[in-house]
């Protein structure tokens, strides 16, 4: 999987003091609008790492600027990809679905050698509220491998139509595995048109 530097998010309140983990609710949020998705769109390697851990984030919509904001604060107890060194280099990636291009992709910075990364970053989308409400947010966590293919660490999917927009607090959500049926449909790399014609034996050259 390839990610460009232009897709890296803005740093959230970089001039402000980073809030402590204890200042947020430690209860695991459980809402009907959050679920595991069928696949993690446009992803790279499915990998052999079992999804585990949690992610803490909050959603908001800035009416004035017509901007959807995904505040990714941190992850906890992620799977270890490099078992020999006991490490992972995780980052968080988001998509708005349905999306047939990579225009909707955003991602955080990569945190090295940790399974408990703290990001405190906001991923931003310029989008009308009415359009946003007919979409879903796919949020996935990946291990960054600059020499190979990135490994999937877990994901969740949020139904934005049923999301409680009055809730702007950071909450914890469990990361879920991908369905094995998604492997055949991981990459979206364009469209191919073809036609099939049956030619009976002996008809060639006629």
UniProtKB/TrEMBL annotation:
Alphabetical UniProt keywords: Membrane, Repeat
GO molecular function: neurexin family protein binding
Highest taxon of the lineage: Eukaryota
Intracellular or extracellular location(s): Membrane
Keyword Cell division: no
Residues annotated as domain C2: 51-173
Transmembrane segments: none
GO biological process, one term: exocytosis
Keyword Membrane: yes
CC annotations in GO: exocytic vesicle; plasma membrane
Protein name: Synaptotagmin-like 2
Source organism of this protein record: Podiceps cristatus
């Amino acid at each position: 999987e390839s990610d460009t530097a232009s897709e890296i998010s803005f740093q959230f309140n970089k001039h402000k003091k980073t809030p402590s983990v204890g200042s947020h609710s430690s209860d695991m949020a459980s809402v009907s609008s959050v679920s595991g998705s069928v696949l993690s769109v446009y992803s790279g390697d499915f990998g052999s790492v079992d999804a585990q851990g949690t992610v803490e984030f909050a959603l908001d919509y800035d009416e004035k600027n017509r901007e959807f904001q995904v505040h990714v604060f941190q992850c906890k107890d992620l799977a270890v990809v490099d078992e020999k060194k006991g490490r992972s280099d995780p980052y968080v990636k988001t998509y708005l679905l349905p999306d047939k291009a990579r225009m909707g992709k955003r991602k955080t910075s990569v945190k090295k050698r940790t399974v408990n990364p703290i990001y405190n970053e906001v991923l931003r989308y310029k989008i009308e509220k009415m359009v946003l409400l007919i979409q879903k947010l796919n949020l996935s966590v990946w291990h960054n491998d600059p020499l190979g293919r990135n490994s999937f660490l877990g994901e969740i999917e949020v139904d934005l139509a049923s999301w409680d927009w009055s809730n702007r607090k950071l909450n914890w959500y469990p990361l879920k595995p991908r369905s094995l049926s998604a492997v055949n449909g991981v990459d979206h790399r364009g469209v191919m048109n073809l036609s099939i014609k049956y030619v009976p034996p002996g008809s060639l050259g006629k």
